[in-house]
Amino acid sequence: MEIYKFGANILRDKALPVTEINQSILDLLEEMIETMILAPGIGLAAPQVGYALRMFVMNVDEGVFERIINPEVLEVRGVSTFNEGCLSFPKMYMDVVRSNWIKVRYLDEKGKEIVRERDGLWARCFLHELDHLDGKLFVDHFSKKQFRQIRDDLTVIEQTGLVQNLKPAPKLK
Ligand SMILES: [Zn+2]
Q1: Known catalytic membership, residue 72
Q2: I need a surface site. Which of 91, 101, 159, 160 has the fewest CB within 10 A?
Q3: How far is ligand 1, taken at its centre, from the CA of residue 114, in Å?
Q4: Residues near ion ligand 1 (Cβ under 5 Å)
Q5: How far is CA 4 from the centre of its chain?
Q6: Can you say how many angstroms the Cα of residue 159 is from the centroid of all Cα atoms in its chain?
Q7: pTM (2 decimals)?
Q8: CA of 40 to the centre of ligand 1 (A)
Q9: How far does residue 76's CA lie from ligand 1's centre (Å)?
């Protein structure tokens, strides 16, 4: 699958809830996992591959590939800073401040409701991917000073993204 880069309109859209976990959704999640592994990355959200749906995949715990559907944050605590990247912003890394601990609710691929409390990288990745579902990107967390540092790189990525807008993802069956 093609990963949409900064500048692609879909990255700024608010994604819609998944209403039914059917075979098309399951196939899409598997394709997203393959795409994430190949990239390589530890998280990939549906809008990044052209689908405005509230779901993402993660591989933070070794050997564990998680399919997260209709996620919500119930509670957050603390703050931490970490040098983050994003597959929609090739070769760009920047310190981003986020909550350090989260309590979340989501559906797994079997439609089972999961409530979890996690911290560290898992929490960070979850919050980063959840942002994607609301059209929010990691650059939106940058300070003015950080933004000035990457402004030129951003323009280059944005031009790639605008070209990509000409090639929409195939429709779900
Ligand atoms: Zn991202």
Answers
A1: no
A2: 91
A3: 23
A4: 86
A5: 11
A6: 20
A7: 0.95
A8: 12
A9: 20
- pLDDT single digits (tens) 91-141: 899 999 999 999 999 999 999 999 999 999 999 999 999 999 999 999 999
Q: How far is the centre of ligand 1, averaged over its atoms, from the C-alpha of 127 (Å)?
A: 10
Average pLDDT, the chain: 94
Rounded CA-CA distance 103/121 in Å is 14
Q: Which fold has domain 9-160?
A: Peptide Deformylase (3.90.45)
CB 115, CB 105: distance < 8 Å: yes
For 156-167, the pLDDT digits (tens) are 888 887 777 666
DSSP conformation letters of the chain:
-PPPPTT-GGGGSPPBPP----HHHHHHHHHHHHHHHHTT-SEEEGGGGT--BSEEEE--STT--EEEEEEEEEEEEEEEEEEEEETTEEEEEEEEEEEEEEEEEEE-TT--EEEEEEEHHHHHHHHHHHHHHTT--GGGG--HHHHHHHHHHHHHHHHHHHHHTTSPPPPP-
pLDDT digits (tens, 9 = 90+) for 36-71: 999 999 999 999 999 999 999 999 999 999 999 999
